Amino acid sequence: MDRYQYLIVMALCVLVTLPLEFVLNARVYRRPGRLLRTMVPAFGAFVLWDVVAIRLGHWTFSPEYTTGWKVGNIPVEELVFFVVIPLCALLSYEAGSNILRDGWVATLRAGSLGRFLTPAPPSGGAAGATSAPVPAPGTAPTEELV
Q1: What is the residue range of 8's domain?
Q2: What is the pLDDT of residues 14-71, one digit of tens each?
Q3: Number of C-alpha atoms within 13 angstroms, CB side, residue 44?
Q4: Is residue 144 part of a domain?
Q5: Cα–chain-centroid distance for residue 125?
Q6: Cβ atoms 18, 27 nearer than 8 A
Q7: How would DSSP label each residue in 75-102?
Q8: Is 91 exposed, middle or buried (0-12, 13-18, 19+ CB in 10 A)?
Q9: Backbone dihedral region of 66: left (phi > 0), alpha (psi from -120 to 50 degrees) or beta?
Q10: What is the DSSP letter of 2?
Q11: Non-local CB neighbours of 7 within 8 Å, separated by 6+ positions
């Protein structure tokens, strides 16, 4: 199980931030072109950095906590890290930006929970009709309420 810890942590990072896409309307996964344009340069820079650091002996990975699967000299877990962590950061940034720009309520309404947070139209009668207010129990109706 220890060999999979790195991958398990990456999976948990994705699971924890995934609701931001839907609940807080981050719209990261729904804009794949923009996501790729953001992720590819960072991924390339990090891979290049790791290749050099590993080759020079400045950076190593514990075989106890990695699977041993590699692409070149880079463990698969490290490549997954280079995708997952920027993705989680983008989701957090977009969700936070939505909240700061629109406020909590508007952001939640724009997300998938919006249908549960939007007030329902008044029931009974035709659309747009309003119902008369109901007096509190134990009070006599006034002319307004009659």
Answers
A1: 2-111
A2: 999 999 999 888 999 999 999 999 999 999 999 999 999 999 999 999 888 899 999 9
A3: 6
A4: no
A5: 41
A6: no
A7: EHHHHHHHHHHHHHHHHHHHHHHHHHHH
A8: buried
A9: beta
A10: G
A11: 67, 76, 77, 80
For residue 131 the two structure tokens come to 């119902």
- Tell me which amino acid residue 135 is: P
Q: Is 142 part of any domain?
A: no
Count of domains observed in the chain: 1
The percent helix, strand, coil of the chain (3-state, each to 5) is 60, 5, 40
**DSSP-assigned beta bridge partners for residue 74:** 71
Over residues 80-123, the pLDDT tens digits come to 999 999 999 999 999 999 889 988 888 888 887 676 666 656 66
Domain-located, residue 86? yes
Instruction: Identify whether the C-beta of residue 87 lies closer than 8 Å to the C-beta of residue 14.
Output: yes
Are 41 and 114 in contact by the 8 Å Cβ rule? The answer is: no
- Rounded Cα distance between 146 and 129, Å, is 17
In a domain, 97, yes or no: yes
